[in-house]
Amino acid sequence: MACNKFEEQGLLYLSGELGKSDAAEYESHLSACEECRLETESYKRESALFYTADVLGETPSPAADAAILRAGENFKKARTPVFMPMMFIKKYAPVPLFLMLVMVAVGGYVRYNSMHAENLRANLTGETAEQFAITDPHHGAADMAAAGRDGLTIIDSLGIEDSNAAPRPLGNLDMEGVVTVSGGE
Amino acid sequence: MKQQANDDQLLFDMWLSGDSKGFSGLYERYRSRVFGFLLRMTGDREIAEDMLQEAFLAALRNADHFDRSRSFLSWLFGIAHKRVIDYYRHAKVETDHIGDTGGSVGSRFDSQEQDLSNKHLRALVNEAVAQLEPSQREVFLLRELGGVPFKEIAEMMDCPINTALGRMRLALRNMRKELKKRGINGVQ
C-alpha cells in the first residue's frame, strides 16, 4: 500500500474527529486517490453491515440482567440517606417556599397600601382644609386668608400642581370660610 | 445520533435524580454493546457478567463526575475497559498486553437469535473477531461497539494516537481477510 492517508486521516475523518479544514483536505484527497477512496467506502459498508450492535453485541443472561437491575435499585436506596437533606429539600421545600412568597406578597401589598394611604392623606391636606373651610367657617379659612392664598393654591403647594403656576381662576375665597367657584362667565 | 445523545442525557438526569427508570433505561440501551465488548475481551461469560455489573455500578457511583460534553456510551466503555485492565492485572495473565481469548470465545456464545441467517452472520463475524490480535481487537471493539473516539482510545490504551490508528487499520484489514475466507460477500 503506497498511500497512508486512510490510516492517518481517513479513520479520524470517518469517526468525525477531523477539524473542518482537515476534513476538506481529506475529501479532496479522496477524489484523487483511488486506494483511499476504496478503503473508505469498504470500511463504511463493512461497518454498516457487520460491525453493528446487532452482530457484535451480546445478551447477558436474564439472571444477570435481574441481578444488575436489582443492584442498581439497591444502590439507589443505599445512596438516598447520604443525600437525605437534599432529597428532603427537593421534596418538601416547594410548600414552605410558596407560603413564604405568599406572605411576602401580602405583606408588601399591605405595606404599600398603608404608605399609599398616608401619602394620599398628606397630599389631600389642602382639600381637607378646603372641605373644612366649606363646612367649618372657623377652621382653615383664617389660615388661608393669612397666607393670602386660595384653597386651590394650598392644594397646589402640597405637590398636586406647581405652586409657582399662575393661580387659576377656578376658585376664589371671597368671604371668610367660603369658597366659591367662578367657573362659568 | 443527536436524538440518541439527548435521550441519553434525559435518562442520565433521571438516573441522577434517583429515578430507577433512568438506570434501567440506560442499561437496556447499552448492555449488549458493553457485554459484547467484555465477553470478547475476557472470553468468559460469567466474568463478563460480573464486570458488566461492576461497570454499571461504577458508572452509578461516578455519575456526578460525568462530563456531559462526552458521549455517555464512550464514557461507559471507558469504565468497562478499566475493569478489563484490572481483571488482567489481578489475574496476572502472562501476555504482553491483555489475554488472548480469541480462539475459544466463539464457542462460548450463548446466542438466543431466532433468525438463522443473522445467527450465521454473527457466528462468522465473531470467529473473525476472535482471530484478531488482542490489541487490534481491543481498538476495534472500542471503536465499533462503543463508538469511542480514537483520541480517547489512545488515552485508555496509554499509547500514541497513531498507534491506535495503526492497530485499527490492521484490525480492519484482518477482519476483511477473515470474512473473505468465510465467504462473506460485500467486502473488498
Q: Order of helices and strands of chain B, N to C?
A: HHHHHHHHH
The quaternary organization reads as heterodimer
Overall structural domain count of chain A = 3
What proportion of the residues of chain A form beta strands (DSSP E)?
under 5%
**H/E topology pattern of chain A:** HHHHHHHHHHEE
Strand order of the largest sheet of chain A: 1-2
Q: Which structural class do the helices and strands of chain B define?
A: mainly alpha
The total domain count of chain B is 1
Largest sheet of chain B: none
CATH topology of chain B: Rna Polymerase Sigma Factor, Chain: A
Question: Which short descriptors sum up this protein?
Answer:
heterodimer; A: 185 residues; mainly alpha; 3 domains; two-stranded antiparallel ribbon; 10 helices; 69% helix; 5% strand; elongated; B: 188 residues; Rna Polymerase Sigma Factor, Chain: A; globular
Describe, in plain words, how this protein is organized in 3D.
The complex is a heterodimer of chains A (185) and B (188). Chain A has helices spanning 5-14, 20-32, 34-49, 53-56, 62-79, 84-92, 94-123, 125-135, 141-147, 151-160; strands spanning 171-175, 178-181. Chain A is mainly alpha-helical and 185 residues long. Chain A has a two-stranded antiparallel ribbon. Chain A is elongated, with a radius of gyration of 44 Å. Chain A starts with a helix and ends with a strand. In chain B, helix 2 packs across helix 4 (72-91) and helix 5 (102-108) packs antiparallel against helix 6. Chain B is built from 9 helices and no strands. In chain B, 72% of the residues lie in helices and 0% in strands. At the A-B interface, helix 1, helix 3, helix 4 and helix 5 of A face helix 2, helix 3, helix 6, helix 7 and helix 9 of B.
